[in-house]
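Q: Hi! New to this. If I give you a protein sequence and the SMILES for NAP, can you show me the bound structure?
A: Yes, paste them in.
Q: Okay, here:
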Amino acid sequence: MIIGFIGFGEVSRNLVNRISSPEITFITSTENRSPETIERVKKSNIKVLDTFSQVAASSDILISATSPKNALSVAGDYGKLAKGVYLDLNNISPDTTLEISKHVDNLIDGAIIGKISSSNPVLYLSGRGASDLLFLNDFIETKIISDKVGDVSRLKLLRSIYTKTLSVLLIEALETAGEYGLEDEFFDILTLTEGENFREKSLSRISGTRKNFKRKSEELNEIIEYFDQNELIMVKAALKKLNL
Ligand SMILES: NC(=O)c1ccc[n+]([C@@H]2O[C@H](COP(=O)([O-])OP(=O)(O)OC[C@H]3O[C@@H](n4cnc5c(N)ncnc54)[C@H](OP(=O)(O)O)[C@@H]3O)[C@@H](O)[C@H]2O)c1
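A: Thanks. Here is the predicted structure of the protein with NAP bound:
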């Protein structure tokens, strides 16, 4: 089996390391790529073809792991050349996934939940051919959601309703606790019910949200726009708080 990559960054490099089987050959191209990517490809020791078009046409599974911004144009350039399945792993909205499906015959909507470099990322898949990729479960925990492209992207956005709104709520609760000099006690009392790592997880969420507040605002806006038939009072409040 041949697995081809369009985009050879952290995701693709980690997948090659995880999926080690004598029956699988990995291919990519370094056509027009940066020195960092060329170096990463060299170190991974995988087969390099001259062009991404050749990669697309030669792969049984073509994986697009580039960037949210480039996902659609990559699908436009190579989607129709893919003779096998086309697995999109970019962090994109359900609308972009549906746009991509216009350029790709055998699209599988995919998402990696958790950092790819962590010990336990989970691969979520939806689409008609998703069951063909279940063998990946031998290498990375793999779950099939449905046979509908768009369901995984939607699920990712639903997850964000919770995680991104909660991060803003945590900021507010901690700020309030700080005004009474009870920050440590705030974490201690919540750890009793929320689990051992509550403090570390919360501080990491809070710092990520504060550092990237512009991007987080955009992501909250994206949720509000996509689910415009739903009221989403809490998400709107989180957006308001983030923009104060
Ligand atoms: N990292 C994670 O844990 C994680 C988890 C979930 C989802 N994702 C998603 O997965 C995707 C890839 O993430 P990553 O962390 O691997 O990104 P990354 O490390 O930034 O790597 C992106 C790779 O894509 C290449 N690329 C960009 N545009 C391209 C194009 N038009 N044609 C061919 N190659 C192109 C880049 O090459 P150059 O260096 O030449 O630009 C680079 O090799 C993103 O959409 C991200 O949101 C990542």
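A: The chain has two domains: 2-147, 154-242. Let me know if you'd like me to explain how to read the tokens.
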